[in-house]
Amino acid sequence: MTTPFSRRSFLQASMLASLPLATAKAQPPAATPASGPAAPAIQPTKGAALQWLEGSVPALSNGATVGLPWPKGAFPKDQSFVLAGAAGEVAVQTWPLAYWPDGSLKWTGHALPAGAGLSKELAIKPGKAAAAAMAVRVQEGPNAVEVDTGVIRATIPRKGVELISAIRRDGRDIARGGRLVALTDDQPDASAGAVRQTSYESTVKSVTLEQNGPVRAVLRIEGKHRSGQREWLPFTVRLYFYAGAESVRIMHTFVFDGDEHKDYLRGIGVRFAVPLTDEMHNRHVRFAGENKGVWGEGVRTLTGLRRDPGEAFRKAQVAGVPVPPLEQMNKQVSSRLNLIPAWGDFTLSQLSADGFQIRKRTKPGHGWIDASWGRRAAGSGYIGGISGGVAFGLRDFWQRHPTQLDIRNAHTDAAEVTLWMWSPDAPAMDMRFYHDGMGMETHEQEREGLEITYEDYEKGYGSPVGVARSSEITLYALAATPSRERMAQLAEAVQLPPQLVSTPAHYLACNVFGGMWSLPDRSHPLKARIEDELDRRFDYYRSQIEQHHWYGFWNYGDLMHTYDEDRHSWRYDVGGYAWDNSELSPDLWLWYSFLRTGRADIFRLSEAMVRHTSEVDMYHLGQFAGLGTRHNVQHWGCSAKQVRISAAVYRRFYYYLTADERVGDIMRELLDADSKLAAVDPVRKLKDAPPPGKFPVRAAFGTDWGSLAGNWLTEWERGGKQRYRDKLLAGMHDIGAMPKGFFNAERAGYEPDTGRLHNLIGDDVKASHLNAVFGAVEIFAELISLTGDAAFEKAWVQYCAMYNAPKAEQAKVLGKAHNGTNALQVGHSRLTAYAAWRSKDAALAKRAWREFSHPPAKPVRTVRISGPAVLNPVDEVAWISTNDTAQWGLAAIQNLALVGDYIE
């Protein structure tokens, strides 16, 4: 018997009030979520309030881009928008990111000019966009593309070695000859003999103009690295230009396509030249350190000499401003300037997360001098003179060690700068698999290995060929040497680019990402306890990143899988217990946590995870292209190459919130991942998998088809090819038509060409604890809402209600109990909650809370471990695993939203 169902607290949080947007002032994100269920009164059809992610107005903005959702039917696809600020309307460039099935706008991207929107009260509203006071202008020629921001002008050749041939300001070249460089060794170290090193430079294959102003211009450059006749390491570089900006943002991506047993990357970076015309004593070098610290010196120093040039000269050089005329200098110094060394070469190397060094020398062939040391450099520098130069920065500099900034030939008429994403001072990059297979040759032997180390090993499958990494670089073409304070501001903008977001209430009101979440609600003591525990679990993982140093070029952005209580460390070296690689959806837990709270620290951790998991944990070319790699000691080590890891469901949050083109590329790489499933059978090692019969592939409805469905749904809403929509709808129809719905689709016959699914088990009933925990819950909720497919909804609600149901009830409804275990009961409680909400069944709602609460979840309470038991003190939660944390977090968020009024 059912009773009337209510979601009062959820509706209170998401209801659309009639107050105008102007009364809903943007609030800076709090360090912890605000109490109470009520959302600020908003009316999304009238616009969206914006706020700076970190809460405070940034000191400077090089231009900003934000993605915003809209309710279904609110705006037509050609709707224009304006940006309203405290000082009036600001120019904004708008483009569609996604559409609702009725063709109305679902997500839009918006770009602001440099220096614009630097206030707290901002809103995007429907209306005619204001004209840009200073617009980006692009001229396309047969040999090059010219981009003018109104402050700087850049020339991008269509072919050749250079990505940017020149950046000019006020008619003068500030930078020239921008190119990519790479170094390889033919062996990992010199223990086996002499190492032969090879140098590579970029060769451009194509230049595509993706956006053409008036506020933002984007160029995509593709090519490979070349030395002699060999071309490899394909790259994609995007250049971003904003109206009024004195900078260019560079998004650099490379894919490893070499032989890990022969090609050991020793360095990969971006290099350019900086023309210098000022006197040696009016040339300056700057490096940003830690906590806004700046190291700065002249190429020819005037301080500390035996003879004093004069206080005005010393202070001017330290400040980076022109020194007085030499006629006013102490002649004992001015007559001997040529005898003061000119320092031509400078290097800042960050070889670990906890130490950097600055060195300098006069020129090649002479010794290096130790200049300074520090812990964590901000990754920015400057070389130039009083008449201008280039500031440059690499984001996540110390987090992605080993990194390096080089300045060479500063004593000549053209300095050379290299930003190394992998420092050549570090050991060569060794990407070989970490063990020799230990005699495992057959699937039976591999299953034995899985039994002891949880590692799904298979010879030849631990290959890095096809993994990628993207890096963000900013170049500033400056008219003069920046002050030390200005240098610190430039470095901060590189490391923490100002990001606009909307409010959690706006995201919620637009019913995006399935709508199965609510704003934090502490109106009930048990709800308050759950909210507090959600906060504690995130805070604990954030602390673990630091305490256990989850940093490094290939590692930063990932989490570990399971803790080792005996060693007081995470199981970094134990098979499948090491790097998590999106296992059981920590990505979703983090993104939903951000949506409901607006916390900047959650966003930034999620952002780093997207950059890592979408690049390193999946393949971008080769035999596994479009597939991801299950958790392992090495990110690419596991033989389980599956769509459940590469799935767009983990990437689309960041894409829609930021309009990031690189993540948009990656999601389109996934569209035909199903074509790999026949050759890389996801169930090839399972003893009880049903035979495929006449169908090319055996696919699970959640870990396989559900992941594909998320890829295709994203393409459909982005306005892509209808072929993927049709494959998606075909699979939904087939599941809905099976006699036992999803219980017949635990392993189904699959046709990649058409997307059709076929029942392989007749009237039998099967279930897997993994099928619902890789984004299927969230994607299926969206599909039901978007399509109205009644048969698919009925089948899914039945699965949700029956998975955790008592065996007797399963037998009564399904004819027999399913074969699934009780594993992940807490995670599956949100399925019960969904069934309760869709069927308005209060008894199911109460059952969902019992499943969530019994046995009670262990609270995160840390124990400090120090002394000789550990290398460094750690705060320990001995029982914790990322699987349980992610699934508990998602269940808490969704149960609160769907059945919050039935909490016991």
UniProtKB/TrEMBL annotation:
<dbReference type="InterPro" id="IPR048331">
    <property type="entry name" value="PcRGLX/YetA_3rd"/>
</dbReference>
<dbReference type="InterPro" id="IPR048329">
    <property type="entry name" value="PcRGLX_1st"/>
</dbReference>
<protein>
    <submittedName>
        <fullName>Tat pathway signal sequence domain protein</fullName>
    </submittedName>
</protein>
<dbReference type="Pfam" id="PF21345">
    <property type="entry name" value="PcRGLX_2nd"/>
</dbReference>
<feature type="signal peptide">
    <location>
        <begin position="1"/>
        <end position="26"/>
    </location>
</feature>
<dbReference type="InterPro" id="IPR045793">
    <property type="entry name" value="PcRGLX/YetA-like"/>
</dbReference>
<feature type="domain" description="PcRGLX/YetA-like N-terminal RIFT barrel">
    <location>
        <begin position="48"/>
        <end position="126"/>
    </location>
</feature>
<feature type="domain" description="PcRGLX/YetA-like C-terminal alpha/alpha toroid">
    <location>
        <begin position="497"/>
        <end position="903"/>
    </location>
</feature>
<feature type="domain" description="PcRGLX/YetA-like central beta-sandwich">
    <location>
        <begin position="136"/>
        <end position="491"/>
    </location>
</feature>
<dbReference type="Pfam" id="PF21346">
    <property type="entry name" value="PcRGLX_3rd"/>
</dbReference>
<dbReference type="InterPro" id="IPR006311">
    <property type="entry name" value="TAT_signal"/>
</dbReference>
<keyword id="KW-0732">Signal</keyword>
<dbReference type="Pfam" id="PF19501">
    <property type="entry name" value="PcRGLX_1st"/>
</dbReference>
<dbReference type="InterPro" id="IPR048330">
    <property type="entry name" value="PcRGLX/YetA_2nd"/>
</dbReference>
